[in-house]
Amino acid sequence: MAANEATRPRVGSHLFLMLLLVAFLFPVGWALLSAFKPAEDIVRAPLAFDPSTFNLDNYTAMFQDVPIGQGFLNTAVVLLFKGACTMFFAPLAALAFAKYQWIGKNLVFGAVLVTLMLPTIVLIIPLLLEMKELGWVNTYQALILPGAVDAFAIFWMRQVISAVPDELLDAARVDGCGEFAIFWRVVVPVIRPGLAGLGVLTVMNIYNDFVWPVVAASNERMATLQVVLSTLAQNITGNRIGADYAAVTGELLAASSVALIPLLVLFILLQRHFINGILAGSVKG
Amino acid sequence: MQRHLLRRRALIASAGLAAAAPALAACGPDIASDDESGASELLKAPDRTKGEITIWDRSGDLFEVFEGTIAAFNAKYPDITVNHVAVDIDAKLQNTLITGADVPDGVFLDDAKVGGFTDYLWDLGDVLAPYAADIAQQKLDVNTVAGGVYGVPFDLDPGLLFYNATALEAAGIDVDAIATYDDLLQAARDYQAAVPGAAPIHLEQSAFLGQLQLEMYASQLGTSIADADGNLRLDTPEFEQILTFLDTVRAEGLGTRAEYLTPTDIAELDNGNQVFYPWAIWFSFAPQQVLTETTGDWRATQLPAWETGGARSGAMGGSSFVLPKDGKNADLAWLFYEFLMFDPAGYAAVWGPGEVYPEGLATSIPSYTPAADPAKPLYSEITALGGQDLWTVATEAGAQIPGGTPTPAWWTGAVDYLGNNVQRMLDGDMTPQEVLAQSSEDIQTNLVDRQ
Amino acid sequence: MTAPTATATRRAPRAGRGTARLRRRAAPYLFVLPFVAIFAAFSVYPLFFTARLSFTDWRGTGAATWVGWDNYTYLLTNPAFWSSLGNSAILWLLIVPVQIVLGILVAVLLNNAKLRLRGLYRVAFIVPFVTPLVAVAQIWVVLFDQRYGAVNAFLGLFGLPDTGWLTTSAWAKPTLALLFLWKTTGFIVIILLSGLQSINASIYEAADLDGASKARQLWNITVPLLRRTIGFAVVLQTLAVFQMFAEPFVVTQGGPYNSTTTAGYYLYNHITRADLGTGAANSFLLVVLVMALSLLFVRLLRAKD
């Protein structure tokens, strides 16, 4: 292949990727920067950025009006427990699907698929009534337990664990390892990259989940970060009459920035693990 | 269609789940039970004045206003602790009422939504009885469902004609001469002739607020979307007259189509293109807190009449306080609202000058007539209205609002039909007659027949 | 996605053979137990409750009245129900094909180890996926505002007229689809990238020797070999699009004129009106539809194997 033929498409692909890059980063960058603008300017001149007018007013107003600290705390609790459940029990279940023969396997795997297909919104009301029966409304367990062992995580870990050679498991058995020890001492270390990917994905899903939390946490002391954000957003979208559109938008962008930054930092720090982790769970072509 | 009480077994069998019946017998919360056992639905005033109440308000200006009244309330009832929370009421209330967990004792609710929740609310007929004769009829009507009163009426929101006095004067338009909607159309034409490119009259683009404004026009004519028995009365000459007016504004290019106080709307108000805003008194929020260029230029006057001598105002929106039956101290919450609405110290704390509105809560007037006395203003000159005495304008308008305009339980649901169809008309895609016929049919099948 | 067989059964450990075998038999049941417990408690139980509810007119309080198939016939004869499915179908058309094509192109480019700034691209494309939806929604509302939005301001530079992106029924769906594309394409890219990594590079070397153009290679080699991964992505996104609720909930509230009332959002409308019986019936219809679609795609994939 001639040299110029090899380079020409590369320029084109860079151009294509750069355009996409701008399109993908622009909205987030715009939001992060706009949060520092005077509220009226955000909506009246969304493309103008005059650093001399930058201030922290939106942040001050937001911290004053919005219980964002409480939101962080609740999200942290849910993240810790729900995340732990998925990170532990999903690979465990996946191991059963990937490496064991047992009666009812297809049936239970069917249950995993069904869970994947069930829209959250379908279960909202019956789940809420169930929480009522259990006396769990406005409790952490209501936020944590439904969906605590994520179906997608099982599905994905099953792929990852399938790639682990059976010989490795057998060797451990020969050494007298119990079945759980095989999981803990053999499988888990081998699939660590996949688990890292799962970890980031799980954190992201739980952190950004809001349909069920909005319903399950009617009391503001239980409101997660996303519930706090959506309550704020309702001031704009829900025909809120006595709310200043620009001011609320400013507060929302400030709150969104505060909510986004931890996840963004986490992701940038762990992106190699995340991406390699997903690659580890590849659905083979 | 034969309807009978739900029986588990029959239901399971017909759901094709008979095989699983034994296991399912205990499945799912028992939806057939009703443990109210005929207990009275009528709230009784408490014989105690000690306890804690949880009060929900929507966030925004009114939350701050009510927050500021708690001190005055505690001056009278020092032993009642008010736990005041800003809540996204639309998203939370229904679920909270269904689950019955952590139910607040009192909730701020749009009048149009009260009807949808009456199953869960105390009937306030008894406690309101001493005041009922002095409450604006329109507010009692919207809170009354099947003989029960389910909300403590809060504000009365007379529709007013807001106008940009400076701009209109410069164009030589005499607002005082506008007595009917035909006059308003003429004034708009004249303004447009003087200011080319102007689109003087506001045309609401939100389906919900558009329907609310439609009800304001209808209220002027003493009618509403449904009568007290819940029967539709939409396909009537009154509504046709209103829609024809709106359609004329559209057809002649006299209207600015925008959603209430979104950036576009604000810009058109501030640049003098949009100078007539027939809206509830709460529009005064705009010149007070949102408009920058034209604050101080705006004034309010009574609405034009639909025919000479007709009522010069109608009600638009407004809210009430509801007391859920599952609220543990709903009776104490009643004391809170009784104080705020009917005690001179209370309504002075609500409508008088405060932190959020230094000149008073000039976005509404009390619905309790003794509080809305033109002679005893709770607020008066509003700087943003060029020092106009809004209290007098509003109380005089409020006194003209005809009663007999109840709100059906399905009012918000109707936005999908009536609200949307009005917008289609403003797009030029439907005629007023089509809007009324189509909406009536859809509302009848999807809402009235499915109650 | 083949289920591996436990080849290990052939070799059994010497000591404690009986208990070890028993343990090994019992292990998978214990391993899936937590999932099954959660599934039974928070999926099966509510689903049966939904089934019961769908034959009543229950409004959340008081006694429920048995109405037979009323709720189902109401929905199936209601144009609004069908139009909600239609809206979801149109969104699917606007999203999935575009996303797959875009995803393959980007994944193929990023798969080139010599690509400069590869790390930057990989991070950049996944950033939207990390961003909270509630925040994105408001960003969208402001950026796509007809008069002040950055999008119209940008298009105005080329002399294009202002478009009511979120206020006209013609544009609201594409705008919502764009949000969905923006938010999830990065994830699809990574999934496709994972499929690409399992393709043996020697195949391309052979094709290069044969003089096949890059475009031809993409179409004749990459796409067929990626078929299963692509299928996986399609199923995943089909589920997501037909379950879509949060996006219209936060951006358009189903409007204008119900043009973004997706299947999921239409269902939510019943709930907000406390018409829980109809909501339950709608839930069932939606579940059946989503499952049927997933099975259909899985079948289509299998048929090609």
TrEMBL record, chain A:
<dbReference type="GO" id="GO:0055085">
    <property type="term" value="P:transmembrane transport"/>
</dbReference>
<dbReference type="InterPro" id="IPR000515">
    <property type="entry name" value="MetI-like"/>
</dbReference>
<feature type="transmembrane region" description="Helical">
    <location>
        <begin position="182"/>
        <end position="207"/>
    </location>
</feature>
<feature type="transmembrane region" description="Helical">
    <location>
        <begin position="12"/>
        <end position="33"/>
    </location>
</feature>
<protein>
    <submittedName>
        <fullName>Carbohydrate ABC transporter permease</fullName>
    </submittedName>
</protein>
<keyword id="KW-0813">Transport</keyword>
<keyword id="KW-0812">Transmembrane</keyword>
<keyword id="KW-0472">Membrane</keyword>
<keyword id="KW-1003">Cell membrane</keyword>
<dbReference type="GO" id="GO:0005886">
    <property type="term" value="C:plasma membrane"/>
</dbReference>
<comment type="similarity">
    <text>Belongs to the binding-protein-dependent transport system permease family.</text>
</comment>
<keyword id="KW-1133">Transmembrane helix</keyword>
<feature type="transmembrane region" description="Helical">
    <location>
        <begin position="107"/>
        <end position="128"/>
    </location>
</feature>
<feature type="domain" description="ABC transmembrane type-1">
    <location>
        <begin position="72"/>
        <end position="270"/>
    </location>
</feature>
<feature type="transmembrane region" description="Helical">
    <location>
        <begin position="252"/>
        <end position="270"/>
    </location>
</feature>
From TrEMBL, chain B:
<feature type="signal peptide">
    <location>
        <begin position="1"/>
        <end position="25"/>
    </location>
</feature>
<comment type="similarity">
    <text>Belongs to the bacterial solute-binding protein 1 family.</text>
</comment>
<protein>
    <submittedName>
        <fullName>Sugar ABC transporter substrate-binding protein</fullName>
    </submittedName>
</protein>
<dbReference type="InterPro" id="IPR050490">
    <property type="entry name" value="Bact_solute-bd_prot1"/>
</dbReference>
<dbReference type="InterPro" id="IPR006311">
    <property type="entry name" value="TAT_signal"/>
</dbReference>
<keyword id="KW-0732">Signal</keyword>
From TrEMBL, chain C:
<feature type="transmembrane region" description="Helical">
    <location>
        <begin position="89"/>
        <end position="111"/>
    </location>
</feature>
<feature type="transmembrane region" description="Helical">
    <location>
        <begin position="225"/>
        <end position="246"/>
    </location>
</feature>
<feature type="transmembrane region" description="Helical">
    <location>
        <begin position="27"/>
        <end position="48"/>
    </location>
</feature>
<keyword id="KW-0472">Membrane</keyword>
<feature type="transmembrane region" description="Helical">
    <location>
        <begin position="283"/>
        <end position="301"/>
    </location>
</feature>
<dbReference type="GO" id="GO:0005886">
    <property type="term" value="C:plasma membrane"/>
</dbReference>
<comment type="similarity">
    <text>Belongs to the binding-protein-dependent transport system permease family.</text>
</comment>
<dbReference type="InterPro" id="IPR035906">
    <property type="entry name" value="MetI-like_sf"/>
</dbReference>
<keyword id="KW-0813">Transport</keyword>
<keyword id="KW-0812">Transmembrane</keyword>
<dbReference type="InterPro" id="IPR000515">
    <property type="entry name" value="MetI-like"/>
</dbReference>
<keyword id="KW-1003">Cell membrane</keyword>
<protein>
    <submittedName>
        <fullName>Sugar ABC transporter permease</fullName>
    </submittedName>
</protein>
<feature type="transmembrane region" description="Helical">
    <location>
        <begin position="180"/>
        <end position="204"/>
    </location>
</feature>
<feature type="transmembrane region" description="Helical">
    <location>
        <begin position="123"/>
        <end position="143"/>
    </location>
</feature>
